[in-house]
Amino acid sequence: MASYDVIIIGSGPGGYVAAIRCAQLGLKTACVEGRETLGGTCLNVGCIPSKALLHASHMLHEAEHNFATMGLKGKAPSVDWKQMLTYKNDVIGQNTKGIEFLFKKNKIDWIKGWGSIPEAGKVKVGDEVHEAKNIIIASGSEASSLPGVEVDEKIVVTSTGALELPKIPKKMVVIGAGVIGLELGSVYARLGTEVTVVEFLDHITPGMDGEVQKTFQRMLKKQGLTFIMGAAVQGVSATKTKAKVTYKLRKDDSEASLDADVVLVATGRRPYTDGLGLEALGVEMSERGQIKTDAQWRTNVAGIYAIGDAIDGPMLAHKAEDEGMAAAEVISGKHGHVNYGVIPGVIYTHPEVASVGLTEDQLKEEGRAYKVGKFSFMGNGRAKAVFAGDGFVKLLADKETDRILGAHIIGPAAGDLIHEVCVAMEFGASAEDLALTCHAHPTYSEAVREAALACGDGPIHA
Ligand code: FAD
Ligand code: NAI
């Protein structure tokens, strides 16, 4: 039996970051992970592999659609799917090995196996029971399915199966027009699959800015994705090679069905806490299966903390990482803090979609007076040069104080551009502060400045 200051259960972005920060703060630290490799959902079957496939398929799309215009002649490359999966797996390997290296460097013990908590202060892995003054649960999440839909990860798949299909399907039905459905739907559409997205609501990407939703859907349609909106999936029947998705249109209750080679179920994820023994310990849970914590990630059981996808809040890697760092700081007697008002969200399609802070709908609901500064990438020289003029930056600021309240971007490098707004918001900046900051030309970031100018006397290039 070994004894630690902290044992973390789960090595995803929440768990591994917590472990590294605990070790840096001088705490004797171990991390329990049941998977073969470190890094959790994000590195193994989430953020990283999906971005590798998005990158490779985007390169193909560029070759097919834009190369000839730039004078780059010749046949567009053909797809060697097996090699694309090898590339994706290599990227995963480099990243998971990187975490293993960081664990060794920081003298963190990786306890291999599935952990449970027989009592506060103890973590059991296999037959071994380890002692820990503090335990952080970072057990993450798993895909949730629908009633009447049985996932086999071959024909009816979650994102995990969709990242590892034996061949590129001819027809794919995606259930759910959220982040996973649109990212992976884009990958396969670019690779030549006929992709139909079936969504329960009347708009895609729930929770995002309404104008962004409309523009984004229009662009995805142009890229070949078909949408069936306002449709409640009733069930999926599958054979060894085909599937049929039955749905009911909400507007008139009419029923219809779609045939597919592969069905991707992307209707959300739920916290994963199986086997931890939380019920016996009396750890309080929400009705949605999340572990309840206070503002410093403490559960109701002394010495047990929880972070990441297993608790409330957006299911995002960077949110989990920030909580991991902050919980480690709380445990070591420092002041850990996460500003939940400034957590960016990014969809890595082409173009990218990014947002931070409040949406117009939320501001209206709050009855808050606000102003909108909007700038189209059509007025941005750099974007036009790379066929990326479609899209815009929208900045929301308080009408009285000019303080930035939110930003919503659809366009080139949106996922990077959003961070200058995040930094500005952390500093409590006004739109004028951004507008007065010199931005290098020609960069996409000039569009952010122009949107800030649009909150005041007006943009220059519109
Ligand atoms: P996880 O990453 O889920 O890690 C939890 C780990 O705990 C797992 O490895 C699991 O094996 C282990 N574990 C669980 N129980 C036990 C136990 N009892 N004993 C031992 N080990 C245990 N987020 C982004 O911010 N950006 C993206 O681009 C992005 N892309 C995504 C793409 C896909 C396809 C998916 C599915 C998700 C994506 N996400 C993305 C979400 C992101 O992966 C999660 O928000 C993030 O991984 C959560 O981190 P976590 O540490 O809370 O949990
Ligand atoms: P999601 O919550 O983003 O989207 C689910 C979609 O399915 C919603 O549009 C919802 O209305 C729809 N839906 C639900 N039930 C339905 C039904 N019966 N029929 C039709 N549509 C239905 O969930 P998703 O895409 O599965 O992603 C899960 C999590 O993973 C997200 O919370 C996200 O934060 C995270 N993630 C983040 C990424 C990123 O940051 N780029 C990438 C991928 C995932």
Automatic annotation (TrEMBL):
Note on how the cofactor is bound: Binds 1 FAD per subunit.
Residue ranges constituting the FAD/NAD(P)-binding domain according to the UniProt record: 4-324
EC number: 1.8.1.4
Reaction(s) catalysed by this chain's protein: N(6)-[(R)-dihydrolipoyl]-L-lysyl-[protein] + NAD(+) = N(6)-[(R)-lipoyl]-L-lysyl-[protein] + NADH + H(+)
Positions of the Pyridine nucleotide-disulphide oxidoreductase dimerisation domain: 343-452
Enzyme class: oxidoreductase
Domain of life: Bacteria
Required cofactor names: FAD
Molecular function GO labels: dihydrolipoyl dehydrogenase (NADH) activity
Keywords per UniProt: Disulfide bond, FAD, Flavoprotein, NAD, Oxidoreductase, Redox-active center
Family: Belongs to the class-I pyridine nucleotide-disulfide oxidoreductase family.
Other notes: The active site is a redox-active disulfide bond.
Protein name (Swiss-Prot/TrEMBL): Dihydrolipoyl dehydrogenase
Gene that specifies this protein: lpdA
